[in-house]
Predict the structure of Glycosyl transferase.
Amino acid sequence: MADFYQNGIITTLHNLVDRPLDELEKELISFSRIRPMSLVLPSLYSELSGPALDNIINDVAKVPYLNEIVIGLDRADEKEYGHAREFFSRLPQHHRILWNDGPRLRKIDELLQNEGLAPKEMGKGRNVWYCYGYVLASGRAESVALHDCDIVTYDRSMLARLIYPVANPAFNYEFAKGYYARVATQKLNGRVSRLLVTPLIRALKKVYGSLDYLEYLDSFRYPLSGEFSMRTDVLNDIRIPSDWGLEIGVLSEMKRNYSTNRICQVDIADVYDHKHQPLSEEDASRGLSKMSTDICKAIFRKLATQGEIFTTETFRSIKATYFRIALDFVETYYNDARMNGLTLDRHAEEKAVELFAENIMSAGEHFLANPMETPFIPSWNRVISAVPDILDRIYEAVEEDNHH
């Protein structure tokens, strides 16, 4: 059951009464006449045969208020792209696939590479960035939602609740972050949020004091959720990180560009499960190990831009403070899980905390050694100023790919 408690410095929109979906959708249809809506789906080709996407598309096909669906397709050759077009053709709404590995979009990427404006690495950040560029180019939406394509517990009420805050013309929100309990198969999930992000923020508060940015991050119930929505004017000047720091980076950008009363979080699901990443203790370039390092770097970089000073000594203090707080959280979550009849492996949780503590130090050392590193993809405003017809080029390339 949800509560009605407001904590932190952003508004929380709860799921208090399980409002019927047809009521929500009826309102959204009326909003769509004033604020047309788009859905962005960043997808790997491999997800077409995964356990989640088929159900997601069947359910999205029933959504009556979307003006556009934009699918970012990664890691697909020509034959696979043809299969993807067939797979998504069941969508009755206006939809377009961005074939990111196709020759037309590759050519645009090369053009931006030559200008020093292209994303530096493959991944979800790059995929989302190009999809947002297409949303700006098509001009079919004023509100846009994004969610992952690996949600095995998906139903379309998640989308309705996610986009409602930015679609309702009576609300003034520019951005809504989805949250939910990470519980599935009788287990408590969401280790990186529970055991890294929240304890790290609390540790940073102890070391640096109660900074506004830290209070802001600490207000989010699930800061790493891949589900968020925004008004399309946000897309022009937001800078998206190209690594695993995507979600934290987007939150940081929203804080930089907007007042906190234009930002909210919304309860979108009672149950949520998706593809789980391995801890990957042996390989720091993969899994939760890389994710945790990228997230730490994103937070450290943001604090540095606000004038906070980091040294090897402060990183040691942060690590030690984090370690104590995180171990206390293991106890807290164990008790919470037990009381709800869920399982929680304390040994695995403490192993994760030990790895995250190491990665806080390695992220800190990387930050000190590379102070000029900027993993952000440039804002679309900057790209348009360098290549004025870039949106036209993207729009034409996508249209040709979808009609040839």
In short: The first strand starts at residue 11 and ends at 13. The mean pLDDT is 94. Residues 3 and 16 are 7 Å apart (CA to CA). Residues 312-339 form the longest helix (28 residues).
